[in-house]
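User: Quick sanity check before I run a bigger batch. Here is a single chain. Can you write out its predicted 3D structure?
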Amino acid sequence: MKKLVIFDLDGTLLDTIGDLCASVNHALGTERLPLRSLCEVRSFVGNGIRNLVERSVPQGMQADTLERVFCAFKSHYAENCEVNTVPYEGITELLSKLKAEGYLLGVVSNKADSAVKTLIEHYFPSTFDSVIGERAGVRRKPAPDSVLETVNALGADIKQTVYIGDSEVDAVTAENAGCDCVLVSWGFRERALLESFNKPLADSADELYDLIKTSEIL
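Assistant: Done. Predicted structure follows.
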């Protein structure tokens, strides 16, 4: 049975924060609401795009205004998700190496499914065996649903699966799924928070490769 490595997307494979921030501020601007800084948007990411928008608008926002901002965000981001987004250093080479060594590769993200598939196809064509984003009727991370779906769809074993992410959401997702976990320090969360989960922590793509290869499970 092949071993499976599942990756988070934002903050793990791709530095998407510039485009996310631009779309958030575009959407806020359509309602003349206060704009958000890059740092603020970074702290809001991780629990899906609706939560991102809800955290970005002022507290107590009326539901109809919130919905308009959300729709404006979705529309703008769908057309502008590849403007400033880039893979993190060494990630493309890491994926090529793992694929050449026979690993199954997956993506599980809380970003909208259509955007996840668009970005993966653009930046990593013909690389992943499974790509899953947020979909209606499926619990998003930290629920284990999409991780377990990936494992089952690829005929893998959860005990030979490792989940790679950059946040507390990812650490808890791996725990809920019952698989190994490696966190990366280059994403959207502070190092001190990541260290509190007592998971292996990679500071570079080379370190991530070594941690995957030396994992007790893999």
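The mean pLDDT is 94.

User: Great, the batch can go ahead then.
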